[in-house]
UniProtKB/TrEMBL annotation:
Signal peptide: none annotated. The keyword rRNA processing does not apply. It comes from Porphyromonas crevioricanis. GO terms for biological process: folic acid biosynthetic process; tetrahydrofolate biosynthetic process. Pathway: Cofactor biosynthesis; tetrahydrofolate biosynthesis; 2-amino-4-hydroxy-6-hydroxymethyl-7,8-dihydropteridine diphosphate from 7,8-dihydroneopterin triphosphate: step 4/4. This is 2-amino-4-hydroxy-6-hydroxymethyldihydropteridine pyrophosphokinase. GO terms for molecular function: 2-amino-4-hydroxy-6-hydroxymethyldihydropteridine diphosphokinase activity; ATP binding; kinase activity.
Length: 130
């Protein structure tokens, strides 16, 4: 079976350091060869109300698992890290893990332009040119 190359983003603005650290630990158990960019502090993007700053990082994964299996793991990790749906007026994101790139497919094109994604990709020496 061919290895799939995946780029994910992690973000939190509510007990962020604790949640990002826990998410990275859990992801490392599921994907032992995962490499993370250093966490960086960013202003909130796309919040309807005033939001606290976020801590974000990226992870690059090589796995033989399929796309849906990987998505399920990402959702499980979010739940284990306290992912809750707060009302938008509370502007709390406990943890958000997004699948950005699956092999050559860009899954979230708008996110790819965000500065923290660009910085993380540089830190991981990744280009979208594959």
């Amino acid at each position: 079976m061919n290895s799939n190359r995946i780029l994910i983003s992690l973000g939190s603005n509510y007990y962020a350091i604790r949640r990002i650290k826990k998410a990275r630990k859990l992801l490392s158990k599921h994907f032992p060869r995962i490499c993370f960019s250093p966490p960086i502090l960013n202003p909130a993007v796309d919040c309807e109300v005033k939001c606290h700053d976020f801590i974000n990082c990226l992870g690059i994964i090589h796995t033989n698992l399929g796309k849906e299996d990987c998505r399920q793991i990402l959702k499980q990790v979010e739940q284990s890290c306290g992912r809750l749906k707060y009302p938008k007026t509370e502007s709390r994101i406990s943890i958000d893990i997004d699948l950005l790139i699956w092999n050559t497919e860009v899954c979230k094109p708008a996110d790819m332009e965000r500065p923290y994604i660009q910085i993380g990709m540089q830190q991981l020496n990744i280009s979208t040119d594959h």
